[in-house]
Amino acid sequence: MLKILVCVKQVPDVDLVKMDPETGNLIRTGVPTLTNPLDLNALEAAVQVKERYGGVITLITMGPPTAESTLREGLAVGGDNAILITGRPFGGADTLSTSYTIVKAAEMKGSFDLIFCGKESLDGATGQMASQLAERFDAALISCCFSIDKISGGKIRATRTLETGREIVEATLPCLITVEKDNFYGRLPSLKAYLASKTAEITMYSENDIDGLDHEKIGVPGSGTIVPRIYPPELPEPGQIIRTGSSRSDVGTLLALLTEKGSI
Amino acid sequence: MQKSGYKNMWVYIEHDGQTATPVGLELCCEIRKLCDAAGDRLYAVILGDLCETEVEKVKGCGIDGLIFVSGTGYEFFNTDAWANAFAVLSRKYKPSAIFVGGTINGRDFAPRFAVQLDTGCTSDAMELAYDPETGDIQFIEPAVGGKIMAVITVPVMRPQIGTIRPGTFRYAPTGAKENIEVIHEEISYDPDAIRCRHIDFLPDEADPEMDIAHADCIVCVGNGLKDSEHLERYRMLAKLLNGKLGCTRPLYDRGILPYKLQIGQSGVMVKTKLYISFGVSGAVNHTAGVDAEVFVAVDRNPDAQIFRYCDYGIVGDMDEICDEMIEQLQAGKA
Amino acid sequence: MAAYNKITPEIAAQLMAVVGEKRFFEGAEIDPNYGHDEMPIYGRHLPEAAVDVETTEEVSEIMKICSANRIPVTCRGAGTGLVGGCVPLAGGLVLCTRRMNRILGYDMDNLVVRLQPGVLLKDLAADALSHGLMYPPDPGEKTATVGGNISTNAGGMRAVKYGVTRDYVLALTVVLADGRVIELGKSVCKTSSGYSLLHLMIGSEGTLGIITEMTLKLIPNPICDVSCLVPFRDVESCIRCVPKIKMANLDPQSIEFMDADIVTSSAAFTGNPIFPETVNNEDVGASVLVTFVGSDEDELDQKMIRLGKIAEEAGALDVLVVATTSNKKAAWSARSSFLTAIEADTKLIDEMDVVVPVDKIPAFLIYIRRLGEEIGIRIRNFGHAGDGNLHIYCCSNALEEGEFKRRVKIIMDKAYSKCAELEGQVSGEHSIGHAKMVYLKESVGEDVFQLMGEIKKVFDPDGILNPGKVCDESLVG
């Protein structure tokens, strides 16, 4: 029976986040949230492993209380239990302190054979969580996993998608895996599981519930990086817009200009 | 932690024994400027054996020193030996910053040794600046889907670690310095302790259409594309211009075109003579990946940000304009 | 009917004077797409000239010129029709409304919107949503113009709950064949005031007048919604479940039918296999997608629980829930791609859009599948199971066009008789154009067909509006 951990994150729909032109701050209020899409691919991979080899899937997330809905979404498609780490002191964490916090909280439930997480998040998009979690879990790392080929005898064989081809690797457990979406499109929940997920119990951890948690290592104090400043992207002056009245002559003008420049 | 105890900047040179991945060289050229601003020395770090001519290339990028690491565990790339080597080296030499190319492998091991060293790590900076007041590097990158630019720093911890996407900076070697310091370190990692082992590699069949980084002309389609049914005309236009087809991230997300054709910061960075975008809104994440001599934009929204980046723009229906281009180009050739 | 005149240089000059040089096209300047709609199999016919109109006044002036000179006028929106409705069979002038694409304003007290005919359906939907409102008709082709939707009385997925386009048209501004401008209907919810010319105009496919402005009814956007995918082993058990769902007082917004074939094509096309091909280790033969709207989640949960019971009794493999925004988006884009997915992997294609009583769907589908196998034509289908409206596509990649047409003719003839036998109608929402005219005549009978012709004469005595369509047999043969 494999013990599987899946790390998920609730993210704002970045397409709908706007910047206040006066203050330069991001306007997040009222922006709908969703479960980070790549995390759902990771969860699907975990569910496939569970179906093939047997196992128990624990979902874990850190975030505001609303992140509960992301856990319930995961419970509906194959998660067995869920942990929500929430509280003010966790806020503003970068990947260094988030990975620390998640590992400490997960350890409350014992050890895990496999840990799955998304390649990167829609909002932060650092793509660093996977390898930092692997380091803190003292686990092997298989990133960009295309297929999970075999798990037996404390080892996992998998195929990865690299820049120029596919690599076949074999790793010892515990192992942390990020997946490509090709073989791991998320599934729709069954009605039964969907309804059950609505009332399922979720373990809530505040900063005081996690054993041995060093409060200096969480949230902002535990972060290695800060964001001292954000600003709107500087836009160059617009180029020459060709407006001659019809598409035909617009294109004609453009092609003449490009020919003149030697571009075509 | 005393920041002042940490000095000099390192660039990791990724290689396969025969050739160094371009991103390492690009980084050396860029970090040279940063070192000059900070009064730091620039070191290139090479793990395992790299052939002599390639080492010469690295030297040509204005480095002050070279650190060669030998020992067991470097036969195939693995995050265990790699992360360990950097942690050991960094504890010994205390560099102020370490830069790693943001390849799949680089992104796998750099954040890992950052945890071992308990320090901050950033990814995908588009610009780097040295702040003399704080002595910190400013890693500047688009965030939240390109809506803002964020300045990220590592204010307390050292070394400052950054992974940078291939193609972000230019390979513009300034020539080898006269006295390049060479350091040899033996850091062995027990091969039996490597937790993820390479078994086999199956190279992708070479498909020239998938290799767009250096195409002379690129026709790029964006989210304005209705569906894949409408794609063929853009392929045809690319062909007529002896160019290649590329796309923006939403088209990859929509499953319409493969990842290898995704242009931008999280995809392929392209350098091209002529770039023509159709239905591309112009988010920074995308435009940051385009280095074009002539940039043409076509979109139905006259206020689209893409028109800020173009040399020439046409406001109109993308399909219609593309068809018109095809027609006129064919008429011209006939 | 008397012969039409050609557009002489003098007439061309008059037309050009109305819209200006940039919106008048002749000869090679005419967009070649004006010669066909999305069913090129019915033939291509280019007009002699085309105009992009912008105002009711321009349309009126154009019609005055054309009626004085007996120039045929075919009105065109986005050209997304499937029966050749906007194809200028007799040449003449194509009058295109694509530039009349402004939403003129909302009356938020009465939930009414005024707009021009060239507004695209997707743009109206998005704009209404930004006002917290919904335009209930939801035809699959989102890039159609709303004017085109009214001309064909388009239906769509939500017709089960909300009805069709006709039910949301309150008033129209129409330019008659001779250029007179009339107002039909008022912004009120009831009317009992003489013959409804408004409803005669809706679905008349540009044969009675040119619509230049519309007033439509909207509803408040539902607070929440959820969809259930109910997969079955085979088509028959799947369809048999539909009347039971309808009878259960669940008031679904839509009940869509899809077979395994189309699900596979659309997954390949969109790159996202949101609808599963196997469920609980069994192959899915066909599924229905049922959508509910409501004022809170509990209400929807209760409906889903009741649907679950019905599905279980009907032998469904499972009931799957589409509840998250991402899944809804993926499901919607898969469902919307069905036709384009078929078109993408098919060289020759013809379609029918029959509507039969819901309980007759299995009989009809089984019949048409067997017919396809017998004649050697690949049949693909999907449709609005909730209202008995089926989209059936005859496809081939191997046949030569003549042979394809010959075989399809056999299938169509037989299928329409079967449809009549099952008490069905020729077209649920794609309308007649010229492609379905012969089947319409058969279906409604000589008397009704003749009455339609008489009505046409009252509106358009010279027959210049969209010649050869609906009930105008003058160009046949």
Q: Secondary-structure map with pairings?
A:
The complex is a heterotrimer of chains A (264), B (334) and C (477).
Chain A: E1 2-7, E2 10-12, E3 18-19, E4 26-27, E5 33-35, H1 37-53, E6 55-62, H2 68-76, E7 81-85, H3 95-107, E8 114-117, H4 129-137, E9 140-152, E10 155-161, E11 165-172, E12 175-179, H5 191-199, E13 203-205, E14 226-231, E15 240-241, H6 247-261
Parallel strand pairs in A: 1-6, 1-8, 6-7, 7-13, 8-12, 9-12
Antiparallel strand pairs in A: 2-5, 3-4, 9-10, 10-11
Chain B: E1 9-12, H1 22-38, E2 42-47, H2 52-59, E3 65-70, H3 79-93, E4 97-101, H4 104-116, E5 121-123, E6 127-131, E7 136-143, E8 148-153, E9 160-164, E10 181-186, E11 196-203, E12 217-221, H5 232-240, E13 244-247, H6 249-253, E14 270-278, H7 284-287, E15 290-299, E16 312-315, H8 318-333
Parallel strand pairs in B: 1-2, 1-4, 2-3, 3-10, 4-9, 5-9, 12-13, 12-14, 14-15, 15-16
Antiparallel strand pairs in B: 6-7, 7-8
Helix pairs in contact in B: 3-4, 5-8
Chain C: H1 9-19, E1 24-26, E2 49-52, H2 56-69, E3 73-76, E4 93-96, E5 103-107, E6 112-115, H3 121-130, E7 133-134, H4 146-152, H5 159-162, E8 169-175, E9 181-185, H6 197-201, E10 210-217, E11 219-220, E12 224-232, H7 235-247, E13 254-259, H8 260-270, E14 278-279, E15 282-283, E16 286-294, H9 297-313, E17 320-322, H10 325-336, H11 338-344, E18 348-352, H12 361-375, E19 378-384, E20 389-396, H13 401-421, H14 437-444, H15 446-459
Parallel strand pairs in C: 2-4, 3-4
Antiparallel strand pairs in C: 1-2, 5-6, 6-10, 7-11, 8-9, 8-10, 12-16, 12-17, 13-16, 13-19, 14-15, 18-20, 19-20
How would you characterize this protein structure?
The complex is a heterotrimer of chains A (264), B (334) and C (477). Chain A is α/β, with parallel strands linked by helices and 264 residues long. Chain A folds into two domains: 2-217, 3-Layer(aba) Sandwich (Rossmann fold), CATH 3.40.50.620; 238-264, no CATH class. Helices cover 27% and strands 29% of the residues of chain A. The termini of chain A are far apart. Chain B is elongated, with a radius of gyration of 22 Å. The N and C termini of chain B lie far apart (71 Å). Chain C has four domains: 9-99 and 454-475, Uridine Diphospho-n-acetylenolpyruvylglucosamine Reductase, domain 2 (2-Layer Sandwich), CATH 3.30.43.10; 103-220, Uridine Diphospho-n-acetylenolpyruvylglucosamine Reductase, domain 3 (2-Layer Sandwich), CATH 3.30.465.10; 224-339, Alpha-Beta Plaits; 346-440, Alpha-Beta Plaits (2-Layer Sandwich). In chain C, 35% of the residues lie in helices and 21% in strands. Chain C contains 15 helices and 20 strands. Chain C has helices at residues 9-19, 56-69, 121-130, 146-152, 159-162, 197-201, 235-247, 260-270, 297-313, 325-336, 338-344, 361-375, 401-421, 437-444, 446-459; strands spanning 24-26, 49-52, 73-76, 93-96, 103-107, 112-115, 133-134, 169-175, 181-185, 210-217, 219-220, 224-232, 254-259, 278-279, 282-283, 286-294, 320-322, 348-352, 378-384, 389-396. In chain C, the strands form five sheets. Chain C has a seven-stranded antiparallel sheet, sandwiched between helices. Chain C has a five-stranded antiparallel sheet with strand order 5-6-10-8-9. In chain C, a hairpin with a 2-residue loop joins strand 14 (278-279) and strand 15. The radius of gyration of chain C is 23 Å and the shape is globular. Chain C starts with 8 loop residues before the first helix and ends in an 18-residue tail after the last helix. The relative contact order of chain C is 0.12. The mean pLDDT of chain C is 92. Chains A and B meet through strand 3, helix 3, helix 4, strand 9 and strand 11 of A and helix 3, helix 4, strand 5, strand 8 and strand 11 of B. Strand 14 (226-231) of chain A pairs antiparallel with strand 8 (148-153) of chain B.
